[in-house]
Specification:
Largest sheet: 10 strands, antiparallel
Mean pLDDT: 96
CATH architecture: Sandwich
Low-confidence stretches: none
Radius of gyration: 18 Å
Helix content: under 10%
Structural class: mainly beta
Length: about 270
């Protein structure tokens, strides 16, 4: 099976001759982070991670999106971590966009390749190592798990984009589909990280306006995206960070499919206190 292309940042710095006008936007309703901002000087490092740097795309921010963080990790050959997570209540999703990564979860070991997807429940004992000669880049999404008495915690699992069938949205003739790695009615899960795909010309035909927060990383293609009251051209490598109730819609361009990795919080009562 041919692997779909996923954009991954390469770092570096723009030349001194480059104009400073750019597409980055930060508002009360959303942030738009274009791929050009993911340079060497916007990286960071984490304790207990060897030969690894990361770009932090989203973090809980009071009065904005408050439920999740989203990193892009770059692990060099021989790098990784035996203590990757410092928060025992944090659950994680890993999605591989370049290279390969060995993942161990509670003693079970697997090798994730491009398109590989892993869900790691809160409290799991896990580690990662890049055993290849090339760097590995992957998305790491984290959310504190909201446990409910009488509801089992979800189990760890590993799958891939290639092994997950995209489900067509009703009455769209296949131009809009979603690859769901967790069933929507599996109440054990309080977050979903899916891949949404549009064929050229496909649209979200209304302004979605809802309580769920979003992080959207464009894996492939380009589109014109409606965020609040603005229309923004987006392309592979761009990131959109949306607070609750930010209106959104899109028109997909071409010539290739438009695909993005999507986070949303789900399946729990709304908190009645701030």
């Amino acid at each position: 099976m041919t692997l779909p292309p996923y954009y991954a940042p390469n770092g570096g710095l723009p030349p001194q001759s480059q104009l400073l006008t750019d597409r980055a936007i930060f508002t009360d309703a959303y942030a738009f982070i274009p791929k050009g901002t993911l340079t060497d000087i916007t990286t960071s490092y984490l304790p207990f991670w060897d030969k690894t740097r990361l770009w932090i795309l989203a973090r809980p921010l009071s009065g904005f999106a408050e439920t999740f963080s989203h990193y892009i990790m770059e692990v060099s050959a021989g790098g990784g971590s035996k203590q990757p997570e410092a928060d025992i209540n944090a659950q994680s999703v890993l999605f591989i966009v370049s290279g390969q990564l060995r993942l161990a979860i509670d003693g079970d070991v697997c090798d994730l390749k491009i398109g590989g997807y892993a869900y790691i429940p809160a409290g799991a004992d896990w580690s990662v190592q890049n055993r290849s000669a090339n760097s590995c880049k992957f998305h790491w999404l984290r959310k504190r798990y909201h446990s409910i008495e009488g509801v089992d915690r979800p189990d760890a699992f590993v799958t891939s984009d290639q092994d997950t069938k995209a489900v067509e949205m009703p009455d769209t003739k296949g131009v809009w589909a979603t690859s769901r790695f967790v069933e929507p009615d599996d109440i054990r899960h309080d977050m979903h990280v899916n891949i949404v795909s549009f064929q050229p010309g496909g649209v979200i035909p209304f302004a979605e306006t809802h309580v769920m927060e979003h992080g959207l990383y464009v894996l492939q293609g380009k589109a014109v995206y409606h965020l609040n009251q603005s229309w923004i051209e987006v392309e592979a490598g761009d990131y959109m960070w949306l607070r609750a109730f930010c209106p959104q819609a899109c028109y997909a361009g071409g010539p290739e499919p438009f695909r993005y990795l999507l986070y949303k919080d789900v399946n729990r009562h709304v908190r009645l206190e701030l």
